[in-house]
Amino acid sequence: MSTEASIAGLETGKLFSFGDWPNEEIPMVSVGVYTVWLGEQLLYVGYSGRNLRPHEIKNAKKAKGLMTRIKSHRSGLRGGDQFCIYVCDRFVVPKLDSEAIESLANGGQLLDGLTRRFVRQELSYRFITTDGSETARKIESQVRTGILNAGKPLLNPA
Question: Where are the alpha helices (DSSP H) in 106-158?
Fold first, then answer.
């Protein structure tokens, strides 16, 4: 598949809900690029599998790369996941009312839980696999500059 066809798949390929898990279509171990959507709006692009080598992909015993990155995003845990921080800051916090803020202050709920709920109920993703991390990085960079018809991603434009 050409790079252009791969890039197009990030906008027009099969759409998966973060709420539907596990996703058997994501290879257990892979290098690739993914886009995150809120309806028709492109929110985010990322890639995963930076340090995976071909022999590691072939011989891996546990999930690495795209599978673990998508799983991390759907967890809603903000610690160590920049995507979840962006989602919380831009979509969760602005919608908090005084009752929700009081519940957070009293420990009745956590922002991670609210972020997880938003991600799983509202967001979807597309992904492609690539032959290596250099290709994935280049595609991610192109998408961040606005190469897709959807324009630049809202949360991480170049």
Answer: 111-122, 133-144
Q: Which residues neighbour 33 within 8 Å (Cβ) at sequence distance 6 or greater?
A: 6, 10, 45, 46, 47, 127, 128, 130, 136, 139, 140, 143
pLDDT, tens digit, 9 for 90 and up, residues 68-95: 999 999 999 999 999 999 999 999 999 9
**Burial annotation 88-104 (CB, 10 A radius, 16+ → b, else e):** beebbeeeeeeebeeeb
Q: If you ran DSSP here, which 8-state letter would residue 18 be given?
A: T
- Asked if 148 contacts 10 with a C-beta cutoff of 8 angstroms, the reply is yes
Per-residue exposure over 133-154, b if at least 16 CB sit within 10 Å of its own CB, e if not: bebbeebbebbbeebbebebbb
Could you tell me the CA-to-CA distances from 138 to 2, 3, 19, 46, 114 in Å, in that order?
14, 10, 29, 11, 33
Residue 22: asked if its preceding bond is cis (omega within 30°), the reply is: yes
Q: What is the pTM of this model?
A: 0.94
The model's pLDDT over 1-16, given as tens digits with 9 standing for 90+, comes to: 567 778 999 999 999 9
